[in-house]
Amino acid sequence: MTRPFPKAPYLATLTGILVLALSPFLAGIMAETGAALAGCDLHVGMTEDCVLLGYNMRSTLYAIGMLSWLAPLGILFGTIGLGIWVFVLVVHLIWRRSR
User: Fold this and answer.
1) Which of 41, 52, 77, 85 has the CA that lies 20 to 30 A from 59?
2) For residues 12 and 78, what is the distance between their CA atoms, to the nearest angstrom?
3) pLDDT averaged over consecutive 10-residue blocks of the chain (99 residues)?
4) Quick check: 28 and 65 in contact, CB under 8 A?
5) What is the DSSP string of 54-80?
6) Apex CA 65: angle with CA 57 and CA 80, to 5°?
């Protein structure tokens, strides 16, 4: 009797790869949303005072917004991770079939 294919580890790994690859995009979206909620603009070249709940979030939003510059690296490492994931999945499927 063969054991069922272990889907959960593969899905968890795929989810982790996608979250890490997309995290720079999510950081940029989070910074833009925070600035929009405070009613201020977020620029790459300059910062302006952005008061949210009595705290000046200027430097925090700027730092989080600058994380979006890591998006090309996130795409690169996500593509490499996805390629490794697919390779391991195919090898596992071939190994299971041959047994």
Assistant:
1) 77
2) 14
3) 84 95 88 84 76 82 83 92 96 89
4) yes
5) TEE-HHHHHHHHHGGGGHHHHHHHHHH
6) 145
Kindly tell me the burial class for residue 65, based on how many C-beta atoms sit within 10 Å of its own C-beta (0-12, 13-18, 19 or more): buried
CA dist 56 and 66 (Å) reads: 17
Question: How confident is the model at residue 12, as a pLDDT?
Answer: 97
DSSP the chain: -PPPP-HHHHHHHHHHHHHHHHHHHHHHHHHHHHHHHHT----SS-----EETTEE-HHHHHHHHHGGGGHHHHHHHHHHHHHHHHHHHHHHHHHHHH-
